[in-house]
Structure formats: C-alpha cells, structure tokens
From TrEMBL:
UniProt name for this protein: Thioredoxin-like protein Clot
SUPFAM superfamilies recorded: Thioredoxin-like
General function of this protein: Probable thiol-disulfide oxidoreductase that may participate in various redox reactions.
One function term, GO molecular function aspect: protein-disulfide reductase [NAD(P)H] activity
Family of this protein: Belongs to the thioredoxin family.
Length: 132
C-alpha cells in the first residue's frame, strides 16, 4: 500500500510524530496534514476548507506509485483552534495560521507547504509530493 496513515491529536502528537519521523527514510515523501476535528453531529470537519481539500489530497496520494506517509494531525474543535496559543500555532517548526495545512517533511524540517487557501489545488499537491 503506497500511502501509510498516521493519526494524531494535540495530546497524542508527540508520540505519533516520533514514530512518523523514525520511519521517514523508508518513504519517497512524508507529509503532515493539519486538519480541523470532525463535528460529531455531522461526521464532517467543522472547517469547510478541510472538507473541500481532504478528498483531493487523498485522491492525489492514493494515485501515486510511491510510498508516502501521511500524518493527519487534528487541531481540535473550533474554540481550541481559535486560541492564539494553540500549540501548533506557536510551535516554531509549524507556525500554523490556518487549516488545512499540508506540509512536506524532509530531513527533520519543513521542505514545503500548502496553506488553507491552496491545499485543495491538485497541481500544487502534485508539486509538493514531487519535491526533490
């Protein structure tokens, strides 16, 4: 299976991220997708941009012949995400400003990223995956 998924919340991120990092050398691409949590009432993300981007991203990843790891990091509910002190907003490695954000992780650093307003554009997703 070319795409390997890892899922994390704010509280489980450190452990999942360590596992993701430890296996990074086995993959052609390592990506982190920061997403809004799903609304329990609708089973959809509370973030309309996430609802729009997720299926496009998954389609692009699953059509790739390469081994890809995708860490889906869920930022929490809307009030949690809106907090200016959210851990991933203030984390120097990520500096998130919006969701969804798709990051190419390479050599223990951010190699490229797509912000919320562009994370659904197929060509940009392809280019991010293909970065060398």
């Amino acid at each position: 299976m070319p795409v390997r998924f890892f899922d994390a919340t704010v509280s489980t991120f450190d452990g999942v991220f360590e596992k993701f990092r430890s296996e990074a050398s086995q993959n052609k691409a390592n990506l982190i997708l920061f997403l809004a949590d799903k609304d329990p009432a609708t089973s959809l993300s509370w973030c309309p941009d996430c609802v729009r981007a997720e299926p496009v991203i998954y389609k692009k990843l699953e059509s790739s012949p390469d081994d890809i790891a995708l860490l889906r990091a869920y930022v929490g509910d809307r009030p949690t995400w809106r907090n200016p002190q959210h851990p991933w907003r203030v984390e120097p490695k990520f500096k998130l400003t919006g969701v969804p954000t798709l990051i190419r992780w390479e050599n223990d650093a951010v190699k490229g990223r797509l912000e919320d307003h562009e994370a659904h554009i197929e060509k940009k997703i392809e280019d991010l995956i293909a970065l060398t």
